[in-house]
Amino acid sequence: MSTQYGQGQVQNEGQMPPPPAYSGYDQYPQGQGYVPPPQPAQTNYGGFSNQPTVGYAYGQPNSQPKENRITPSPDIFDDQSFSNKAIRRGFIRKVYLILFTQLFVTFGFTMLFSLVKPIKEFCQSHPGGTTFYYVSYGTFFVTYFVLICIPSVRRKHPGNLICLGVFTLAFTYMVATISSFYTTNSVMVAAGITCAVCLAISLFAIQTKIDFTMCSGLLFALVIVLILFGFSCIIVYATVGYNYILDCVWGGLAALVFSLFLVYDTQMIVGGRKHELSPEEYVYGALQLYIDVVYLFLIILSLFGKSN
């Protein structure tokens, strides 16, 4: 006895029909009388289809074809790209290169004013030296607040570097004039101590797990205390006279405050904390570190230096 399967295909009774033939992984079975089910219309949305590619031999969805995948291109200077280590290393390198250039100029002029006797006498006794000092102080004050308060100035090249150069020269003349009233050995010893202290503080800021970028309120309070304490010292000096112990206390407090500022600014530049500088703020970062280092030098020189 025979039974008919499909169209004209006869099989012996008691035998199962042969399995449908497969011609490939992504093709339909090629059995006789087999009609593939209708598929819904596919719509392309920006390179992605609303229907996955299906291997009908197993009925499992496959991955999206490579030609339909869209890979977003990251921006170069957005907030997420700054987390990239290469961009961060370049930013840190640029900040410290500017900082070392500023410190080299300041230290060079300071040693020149301390070693050359005519320049030292001009700064100490000549009226022109006092005039230049106040002019440099005004230039320092104006350029500092321009760089701090106007972001477009410190971010636009090359105007930011020109303004930073004027600021550095003005502040350098002030520091060199102050250093001329101390002996050369005192200036060199103070510079060496400042280098050692700044190196130790910078390494601590990089290695510590404490996030000092969240302590801006504490730093502001310490600055207010330092200013009020300085005014109190001026009143005491005017009424009673110079007090060395009071001067040492004020100098120690000032050194502590600027050391904390150095830790804060270093962590802002290195990154990896709650708050960090963007890669466009390399002038601002170098400016803040320069202020911290030079003020530490002046405080150490006033505490331990021997005046002329």
Task: Describe this protein with a few key phrases.
308 residues, mainly alpha, two-stranded antiparallel ribbon, 9 helices
Note the topology:
Layout: E1 2-5, E2 9-12, E3 44-45, E4 48-49, E5 54-55, E6 60-61, H1 85-115, H2 117-125, H3 127-149, H4 151-155, H5 159-179, H6 184-207, H7 216-239, H8 244-270, H9 282-304
Antiparallel strand pairs: 1-2, 3-4, 5-6
Helix pairs in contact: 1-2, 1-5, 1-6, 1-9, 2-3, 3-5, 5-9, 6-8, 6-9, 7-8, 8-9
Low-confidence stretches: 22-28, 52-63, 69-77
Distance between the termini: 129 Å
Radius of gyration: 37 Å
| Number of spatially distinct domains | 1
How many β-strand runs? 6
Average pLDDT, all residues: 79
Widest sheet: strand order? 1-2
Q: β content, as a range?
A: 5-15%
Approximate helicity band: 55-70%
Global shape: globular
Q: Structural class of the helix and strand makeup?
A: mainly alpha
